[in-house]
Amino acid sequence: MEEFYTIQGEGFHKGTAAYFIRVGGCDVGCHWCDVKESWNPDIHPPTSIEAIADNAEKYSKTIVITGGEPLTWDMGPLTSLLKRKGMKTHIETSGAYKLTGTWDWICLSPKKLKLPTKEVYDNAHELKVIIYNKDDFKFAEEQAAKVNDDCILYLQPEWSKRDKMIPEIVDYVMANPQWMVSLQTHKYLNIP
């Protein structure tokens, strides 16, 4: 769908420069998605993996593949090429589909409509649960019970509800310190 060089705004790698590859196509359908234009893969013309990798190589050694839902597609060919070029591959995924590709970092952001596969739970480096309302804390705990013991746990307010939910998240993290707060810092910095 699009490619761009920017600062990672969320999760464990926030504040670091990265080249983002946004893959078109998603049927998970979160009502609060901030990139709904990524959902229909038919409106995004295919781009060769060679062109994508060549573009990425010009900017950064850290590549973040996001969507849409990137695991809708086989990520093996693209990540293999990026790895051959010496790049670190990160993915941001709902985990709803088979884990394909070779990843240095897996950010799992599960959605209620299509839960992650066991393989993604087992391999996630970070769990990022979006908090839209108080019910989402229960969902976050259910998801945390399914990831591996080394997985870092984040709660992130949904952007349109941030003023209401940030105090709730802060209180929750203070009472449950196994969690950390993640914010969409790129939006505060007014960068993509």
UniProtKB/TrEMBL annotation:
Residues annotated as binding S-adenosyl-L-methionine: 32-34, 68, 109-111
Top class in the EC scheme: lyase
Cofactor annotation: [4Fe-4S] cluster; Mg(2+); S-adenosyl-L-methionine
GO terms for biological process, alphabetical: tRNA queuosine(34) biosynthetic process
Family: Belongs to the radical SAM superfamily. 7-carboxy-7-deazaguanine synthase family.
HAMAP family listed in its UniProt record: QueE
PANTHER family named among the record's database cross-references: 7-CARBOXY-7-DEAZAGUANINE SYNTHASE
UniProt-recorded name of the protein: 7-carboxy-7-deazaguanine synthase
Gene that encodes it: queE
